[in-house]
Amino acid sequence: MPSIDIHHTHSLSPQDARQAVQEVADKLAGRFGAACHWSGDHMEFSSSGVDGRIALGPGEVRVTARLGLLMSAFKGPIESEIRRVLDERFV
User: Fold this and answer.
1) CATH number of the CATH domain containing 58
2) What integer pLDDT is reported at residue 91 of this predicted model?
3) What is the pTM of this model?
4) Would you state the pLDDT for residue 18?
5) What is the distance between the alpha carbons of residues 61 and 6, in angstroms, rounded to a whole number?
6) What is the mean pLDDT of residues 58-65?
7) Mapped to the 3 state alphabet, what secondary structure does the chain carry?
8) In contact, 33 and 47? CB cutoff 8 Å
């Protein structure tokens, strides 16, 4: 199963980083019907064809995802969009 693993550094406070992840999760939920929930310092998300997590660490956010068969055809555009959003939200 194809996967995505992106590390992105940032200089946000833990509270601001968590808020940024929540805003992204809210958009995922609204746009794709993704179910999202926090477990400690990471958020698990799941929707049709994609399961993953967004983990917060000191000065870093890591996005990992497993793509289903149909979504694997869109791996490149999905990764590009994730990187764009991380660049926008996590400076």
Assistant:
1) 3.30.310.80
2) 82
3) 0.91
4) 95
5) 8
6) 96
7) CCEEEEEEECCCCHHHHHHHHHHHHHHHHHHHCCEEEEECCEEEEEECCEEEEEEEECCEEEEEEEECCCHHHHHHHHHHHHHHHHHHHCC
8) yes
Residue 5 · residue 62 · CB < 8 Å: yes
Place of tokens 């055809």: 73
> How far apart are alpha carbons 70 and 86 in whole angstroms?
24
User: Residues 72-80: what's their mean pLDDT?
Assistant: 93
User: How many domains does the chain fold into?
Assistant: 1
What was the pLDDT predicted at 5? 98
Domain that holds residue 85: 3-89
Q: Which residue type occupies 44?
A: E
